[in-house]
Amino acid sequence: MDPTSRDKVGVYRSNDPLRSFKIEVTLRKVAAGSVFSPVPLPNARANQEGLELNEMRHENDSNTETCVFAWQEKLFSEREEDFYADRNNCLTPLELKYNDDVVAVKASGGRRNSRIFTYVDHDQYTDTTECVATETTSSQQVTSYLVQNVLNVRQRRTGARAAFEVTGRRDDGQAITSRIDPVAIPTSAESVPANHVISTPSQTMHVMTDLSPADRLGQLEDEHLLCTLRADSHGVITVKPDFNQKGKRYYIENTEGELFEFTIKHVSSPMSRSIKVQETNMFRELYGRHSEILLSAVGQDFARPHSENEILFCAFGEIVSAADFEYDGLYVEYFVHLPDGWKPSGLDQKLTGISNISYTRQTGDRTVAHFGFPFEFEVLFNSELLEDGQSPHMPEVYLQVISLDFWERHRTEGYGRLVLPQRSGVYQENILTWRPFGRGVVSEMRRYFIGGSPELDDITYVSKPTGFTGSHMSRYGFRATTSGTVVVRLNVIQQSQKVIDSQRRDQGGRTETAASAAVLSSFSAALDAFQRARERMRNVKESLKY
Questions:
Q1: Distance CA 483, CA 251 (A)
Q2: What is the rounded CA–CA span in Å between residue 153 and residue 143?
Q3: The CA-based dihedral angle spanning residues 93, 109, 216, 177, taken in that order and rounded to the nearest 10 degrees
Q4: Separation of alpha carbons 151 and 167, rounded Å
Q5: Closest CA to 407 of 318, 319, 326, 329
Q6: Domains along the chain?
Q7: Cβ neighbours for 117, distance < 8 A, ≥ 6 positions apart
Q8: What parts of the chain have a pLDDT lower than 70?
Q9: Cβ-contact 319, 368 below 8 angstroms
Q10: What pLDDT does 315 receive?
């Protein structure tokens, strides 16, 4: 974009108070009358339209005006001063305040500005160029009905603004409403989303100039916008047009053909070194207190096993899917069985659960029900219970797949088990299931018509029944049939202070050796927790009987 184009917009962000924000605007009359000639002249500079700049003579310093503005600082124009000087013209509290300000300015020697003045956020002013915004730069563009309605919907702030008439008074309710300024009165919680309004609190300030001839200043038709400043509650400052680059200027022309140039500069006072150090220390203290609050909420350290010989075993799993079962409407019940020497890490650990019901869909030549059901638990094991060279008996997860149809008939579709791995890592297991098969056709008819089906009285029969102490177990005579497959994804983590200490003593040891030590020194135990687990199993047995 051309650096002299007044369509440039600068967007800045600052956390400092706006009362420190200042800009400097310099206005200079370049030439009187027309300064462009269509005839090429020597030593002349071509402008964008291919015309030649005939003459650009700078007037004396009396035609140059420079003003420095603070944020929301009000400077009156010649027309405003004449209007507000008469108290009979002032009706609203704001107009009465402006009357007092004008009287005070005249008493102090008059205005310090001549052509440059400002409209602050409280003033009734609208930039009419926003009312006729077009989508292209073509002079032949015709705005469609749809475009007009879209422009009126894109609201960015609220608050009515009208344009001054020649008298300086608001006209008879016929306000010039900008496309960024429609008003819904009265407003309500329902009207705001209905109007698609994203209203960020903001303030606006307009820097204006009166380009009327010097002998008749104060003409409304010669008031022109130089710069618009907008700041919102998030610290975003928008400047249109943007601050001038080095050596660049903006140009503006009045109705008489007189050409003016102006520049906009940021002249806020730089922060002193002592204030910078003070602000840095303040933010450091603020962030330090915030970190202390977060640390007190999270805790000083991660939870560790109660003793050096205990190993914490964390399992984070997901029942992914089930496939190739006979009936639809599947859900999975799971139960974590803890062998001797194991215990939950806390009373809040949930070792049983039921998944959501999922209906199957055809995937290739298989019928698959997707669950995505997560589960997790933490258990402890005491490595002192292990003899040299002995590996611990790992916990097992027992699964029971059940179907539920429209008539609320429950059928056992299959049993399976998952032995938790001894090594940390990520695993995905395909668990093959089976179900008990009754003798004769009566049990299958009962299963089809009323949903009854043979079930296990003790779900641990899937692996090693509770109370069995022999070395061999015969299942001769037990009738079963194969069923579908359950996919389980598992993430396993182990934590042991003893292993960490051994790694510190042997910094050159291989990671695989440390992992082997973690396996041999596995997890923590307590008899009371095991008794609670057995009580849960008894409850499961009682529920399965019915």
A1: 85
A2: 15
A3: -30
A4: 30
A5: 329
A6: 10-75+112-273 (no CATH), 310-467+477-545 (2.60.40.150)
A7: 75, 76, 77, 80, 208, 209, 210
A8: 1-4, 32-62, 128-139, 148-199, 300-306, 388-389, 499-531, 543-546
A9: no
A10: 94
pLDDT digits (tens, 9 = 90+) for 501-512: 666 666 555 444
C-alpha–C-alpha distance, residues 162 and 171, integer Å: 8
> Could you give the C-alpha distances from 466 to 202, 503, 535, in angstroms and in order?
72, 38, 12
- Cα–Cα distances (Å) from 100 to 84, 95, 124, 433, 530, in that order, read 9, 9, 18, 91, 87
Q: What is the pLDDT of residues 79-100, one digit of tens each?
A: 888 888 888 888 888 889 999 9
C-alpha to C-alpha distance for 179 and 193, rounded to whole angstroms: 17
The 10s digit of each residue's pLDDT in 427-471 is 999 999 999 988 778 888 888 888 878 888 888 888 888 777 777
CB 396 within 8 A of CB 418: yes
Kindly tell me the burial class for residue 439, based on how many C-beta atoms sit within 10 Å of its own C-beta (0-12, 13-18, 19 or more).
exposed
Predicted pLDDT of residue 89: 86
378 with 345: CB under 8 angstroms? yes
CA dist 287 and 295 (Å) reads: 12
Return the structure tokens found at 541: 């047995």
Per-residue model confidence (pLDDT) at position 544: 64
Residue 143's pLDDT is 72
Gap between the Cα atoms of 7 and 225, Å rounded: 12
Contact 387, 375 (CB under 8 A): no
Q: What is the DSSP letter of 46?
A: B
* Contacts by 461-464, CB closer than 8 A, 24 or more apart: 462/398, 462/415, 462/416, 462/417, 463/337, 463/396, 463/398, 463/417
Match 């579908």 to its residue by tokens: 484
Give CA–CA dist 29/58, Å, rounded.
7
